[in-house]
Amino acid sequence: MAGSHKIRNCFLLFMAALVWGMAFVSQKAGMDSMGPLTFNGSRNLIGAAVLIPVILILRGRVHKAERKPLPVRTTIVGGIACGLALTVASTLQQFGMTMTTVGKGGFITTLYIILTPILGLFLHRKVPGAVWAAVALAVVGMYLLCFTGDSFTISTGDLLVLGSALVFSVHILVIDRFSPLTDGVVLSCIQFFVCGVISTIAAFVFEEPSWGQLADGIIPVLYAGVLSCGVGYTLQIVGQKGVDPTTAALILSMESVVAAVSGYIAGATGLLATDQTLTPRQIAGCAIVFAAVIVVQLPWERIIRKRKNTTGS
Fold this sequence. Notes:
With 313 residues, the chain is mainly alpha-helical. Helices cover 77% and strands 0% of the residues. The model has no long low-confidence stretch (mean pLDDT 83).
């Protein structure tokens, strides 16, 4: 029974990776109808709205006597902090996606998995040697993915997405700080609301949003808001129960592969107007970046300990 439960939850995590990977297509397609800030404001406000019934259902399933009280102050402060980080990260990513391909954007964003433990150095956290090996692999992969010909220049879009990966790492550390102290789904709902409000205000300042734009791009917005924010996050929350964190992270990292494949299909079928084809050089870069992500997720301490015990016996 336990085995079937674990298999089901691993499948839910894969579905989350599938949803998030294909969301890069919606982000790219949404730019045909509206500006990046308008898109981000709409999708995050929808995401917050979708999570409200999820919160009511999840908290309602717990008996009132067993329900933990929600620390209001900590939840609000944490939600605002997470929302500010998410706003910066998603804005950089969205602007970057207007100038790069879906596949490249997906793989560059995945680098947050490697950048997170490196940023942990500033919090006096130990960084395993495997992380530095993964960094070296990632640098090689990024070179093949982003640098073309003999020119040592990186495109503005790639640079913006790389910046978003860095801020997403900060976002994860902020979540790591607050999520053990409060309800994770409530925290996420607040962060989506904060990001949505800030992005919407910025859209009215720097862009010219209209109901017509929203109507034209309603499908990408709904996908990004309902599925990517609401459903994807819920699948992750439910799927991670009873699954080893390393296994969960490895499954979720498939998001980058899904992004590349879905981007190619969207370009080939005309869903996206721009060519999403990756060159053999860029495909090699994607493979190396993905390998770096896998390396950093493996439980090296457990592997080394097991090998020592086997050798000792």
